[in-house]
Amino acid sequence: MTNQNDSKRRALGKGLESLLPARQPAPPVAAPEVNGKPLEIPVGEIDRNPFQTRTSFDESKLIELAQSIAATGVVQPIVVRPLPSGRYQLIMGERRWLASKQAGKATIPAILRTVSDEQAMEMTIVENLQRADLNPMEQARAYQRLQSDFKMTQEQMAVRTGKERASVANFLRLLRLPESVQGRVESGELSFGHARTLLALGSAEAIVAATQKVMALSMSVRQTETYVQGLLNPESKPGKVEKIEAAQDPNVHEAQNRLQRALGLRVRIEDTKGKGRVIIEYSRLEDFDAIMAAVVGEG
Length: 299
Known about the structure:
The chain is an alpha/beta fold. It is 54% helix and 12% strand. It contains 14 helices and seven strands.
């Protein structure tokens, strides 16, 4: 009897299994493809880049980009990295991400990268420096971060960003400007050329005072150069500098001005029939280091 009951139970169980559909295993959730093709990622799951060196975006251009994205989509994918929380952190493409949000896009094409904090920071800074719309102070601070956080030399920074080494040195020197003057440069009230010329004055007090005069009179860069030369040579009689410059060969005078703009220091060229000397004046060690960097490539 016992054997018969067991066989009936087995038969009944088998009958139920044949009547009820077997439970299918849940399909595996596809993991994001890292370092591969672009994926559509929800814009709301992306966090802003904490290593971003840009401090402002042109609102009108951002609106134009949002309108373009609304019409044709994002042409170039952004770059993000996955976070342990399941969200994503932006590495490159903040303007496209912000514009996509403005355009009401639910997702944005993105390439995933598995990189460290240091690598993410370097990628962000280098990408920004390759752009043309950074203001001079943003560029200066970006170079400073590469120098301080990654121990890069000016030569290495020039290679990584495709810039001239002298240009890197000049941007770094802007950080010696008083904060109030840096703010004028950042807002566009003073140009890069104005800033480099004012640096030749050396002391913060002299630079601030000269900046106020330059802005009050709306001086051009060339007028600022003449003004600064007068401040550096107070012993010169009125009109003496102009007379010397008038007597100087125009090509020599232009070369002198180019050197002054490049170094941000006072330069004097004494030329007699193709022979002479170039005199570069500096008032502190940092100025001397800038001269060495520009002339022999140290730094």
